[in-house]
Amino acid sequence: MADPSSYRPKPGQIPDSPGVYKFRDEHRRVIYVGKAKSLRQRLSNYFQDLANLHPRTRTMVTTAASVEWTVVSTEVEALQLEYTWIKEFDPRFNVKYRDDKSYPYLAVTLNEEFPRVQVMRGAKKKGVRYFGPYGHAWAIRETVDLMLRVFPVRTCSAGVFKRSAQIGRPCLLGYIGKCSAPCVERVSAEEHRELAEEFCDFMAGRTGAYIRRLERLMAEAAEEMEYERAARLRDDIEALKRAMEKSAVVLADATDADLIALAEDELEAAVQIFHVRGGRIRGQRGWVTDKVENVDTAALVEHALQQLYGEERGDAVPKEVLVPALPDPVEPVQQWLTERRGSNVSLRIPQRGDKKDLMATVQRNAQQALALHKTKRASDLTTRSRALEEIAEALELDSVPLRIECFDISHLQGEDVVASMVVFEDGLARKSEYRRFQIRSFEGQDDVRSMHEVISRRFKRYLQEKQKTGEWEEKTGPDAADLVSGAVPGPADPSGAAPGPKDEEGRPKRFAYPPQLVVVDGGRPQVAAAQRALEELGIDDVAVCGLAKRLEEVWVPGEEDPVVLPRTSEGLYILQRVRDEAHRFAIAYQRNKRGKRLTASPLDTVPGLGESRRQALLKHFGSLKKLKGATIEEICEVPGVGRKTAETVAATLAQAAPAAPAVNTATGEIIEDEEAPQAALPSEQGQER
After folding, report:
1. What contacts 676, CB < 8 A, 6 or more positions away?
2. Which SUPFAM superfamilies match (predicted)?
C-alpha cells in the first residue's frame, strides 16, 4: 500500500478550474477517473487524513502511485472526457453498471434494399431503426407475428431471401399472407419500403390515425359491398388492437420518456429504467453496481445517464428523462443530453400525477432487483474470495493472486501451432486483455518448446516496455510542463495518455501488467519450461503452476509430486475455469487460422487483384476450375477487369499447381473442386489439441 503523501501534489500546482483527473497505480494502470468543477478543491479531498475517508476511497488512494489531470474549458467537456476515459481505461475503482444480459431490440433494417424486421442485440448499426429494448425476445416475436398480417414486411434471412429468388417461389410466410414476397417481385422495392416505413410509424406510436384510416376503408368497402375486403380490414384492425393491448397506456398524450429509479445501500446500488414511448412501456432494463467510492444518489444518477446514453444513437434519447435526484450541477448533464438528441431534453424529478406514480413502480422494481442481486452476490463474492485464498495457501504464495494469466498451446496434428493467453482479475475474466500468439521459432509439434517461447515473448515484452517507460521518465524529468499536465510523480502526456510505449493509435499498451500467478495448461514439463523462461529473463516475483487435464493435478516447479486439491475445492474450480477459457480461446484462434489457410485461392496471389474483382470473377464463371479454362477475351468480359489484369490472372492460374482431387472417405467418390476445401478437412475428433 502506498502512502498518498508520497505523490501528493502541492496545492499551488493544481489549477482551480474544471478538468478531469486520473489516478494510476505503480504499473501506470489507470485505476480511477473523475471530473471536477474545481480540480484543486476536489483533489485536496483525497489527500486528507485516511481515517476520514470512505473505506473504498481509502483503498483507492493507497493503491494509487500517481495522479494527473487535464484542464478543460467547460463542465460539459469534462463530462464528455470523463466518459471517454472510463470507456477506454476501464478503471477498477470507478462505478460500473453490470448489465446481466444483452437486451433485445425490434429492428427494421432500412439500410437494405428490402428492409427486414428482426430481433437484434448488441451494438447499434447505422441505418437501422430500433424499437425497445424489450425484456424478452419472445415478446418481440409475438408482437411482430400479430402485425405481419397488416404490415407483411420481410422477416427472412439473406440466405432464405436469395434462395426464394433463385427458385421463383416464396417461403411459407409468403404463401400464408404474412410476407409481401418481394423476393419473387409480388411487390416492388419501393412498395415494400413503404410497408416497412408504415410499420415503423406504427411502432413509433402513431397508431390512432392509422387505425382510423383502416376503419374508414372498411366502411367504404362495406358500402360498396366488397364484403371480403371489409372482413380482411376488420381482422387487420383487431390484430393491431391486440398488439397495442400488449403494452398498456401508462402516460397520456403519447409521452416519450425514460424513467430511472435507484435502490441502494452502503455497498451497492441497483438501477431500473422503464422506456416509455407513445405513452406505453416499450421496454425495461436494469443494472447493479458496487459503490466503490462514497457517492450519493445524484452522482449515481449521473453515472447511469452516462452509461445509458453514452453509446446510444441520438434518437434513442427521449424528450423527457425522469430521475429520483438531479446531478449537481444539473446544467452540464442536461446540455450534454440535448447535444446527444439534437433538441431540448427535459431532465427533472416527477412531482405529481401519473408520472410520479409510475416512478414509484420503477422504484419498487429497483428495490426487488437489489434484494435479488444481494442474495446471489453474497455467495458469489464469498466463493471467489475463498477460491483465491485457497490457491494462495496451496501454492504458498505471499499474497492472494488477484491477477492470473493462463497459457495454452493448440494445434492440429502439428500444423497451425498457436497459443493463447487469458487474464482473470479478482476471479473474473478480463477479456480485453486476452492475447494470441503464433509459434515462430520452429516448425512442428512440441508443446514444451512452444510454451517456453510464448512465456519468453510475453515477459520479454513486459521487461522491454518497463525499461522504455523508465528511460522515458528519466530522459524527460519533472519540469514546468509536467506541472501543467499534472503528473505526480513523473511526467505525463498533456493529452492524458500514459508515458512510454504506445500502440498504432497512440494509446498506451496494456500488455505489460505483470500477474501474481501464471497458469499453464499441462503437467511437469510445461511448468518447467515456463519457469525456465522466467528465470532466463531474471523474473523471480511471478509464481508458476500447471493444471494437468487427466487427474486435474496442480504442478509447481521443482516438485516431484503434484499439489492435489480436493474435488470440491473452490480454488481448483477457479483454476479449471481459467484453464478451460485458455483452451477455448486457443482452439478458436487455431480453427480460424486453419480455415483461412484451407480456403486460400490462387487468385489471392494475383498482383493488383482486390477482393471485389476476385468475387466478380468467381461469380461470373461459377468456379475456379471454369476460370482456369477461360480465355483472356472471356476474362475481359467481367466488369472491372481489363486486358492487362486478365492476362495476369490467366498467367497466375496457369502457373498454379493443380490440386489433387479430394475424395469422400465414406463413399470413395471424387469431390468436385468447389467442395474440396471443406472435404479436405481432417476429422477433428480426437486429433485437435
Report:
1. 659, 661, 662
2. C-terminal UvrC-binding domain of UvrB (SSF46600), GIY-YIG endonuclease (SSF82771), RuvA domain 2-like (SSF47781)
What is the average pLDDT value for the chain, to the nearest integer?
77
- E strands in 472-564: 517-521, 543-547, 554-555
Has residue 314 got a pLDDT over 60? no
342-347: Cβ within 8 A, 24+ apart: 342/314, 343/319, 344/319, 345/317, 345/318, 345/319, 345/320, 345/321, 346/319, 346/320, 346/321, 347/321, 347/323
What number of helices (H) and strands (E) belong to the chain? 21, 21
- For 6-10, 142-146, 262-266, which range has the lowest pLDDT when averaged over its residues? 142-146
Separation of alpha carbons 161 and 167, rounded Å: 10
Separation CA 120–CA 106 (nearest Å): 6
Instruction: Report whether 483 contacts 67 (CB < 8 A).
Output: no
Q: What is the CATH number of domain 599-658?
A: 1.10.150.20
Fold of 4-94: GIY-YIG endonuclease (3.40.1440)
Over the stretch 242-300, which tens digit does the pLDDT of each residue have? 665 555 445 666 678 889 999 887 667 888 888 887 777 777 778 887 776 667 888 88
**What is the enclosing helix (H) or strand (E) of 483?**
helix 480-485
CB neighbour list of residue 420: distance below 8 Å, 6 or more residues apart: 407, 408, 410, 434, 435, 436, 437, 582, 583, 585, 586, 589
Region of poorest pLDDT, from 67-81, 246-260, 365-379, 448-462: 246-260
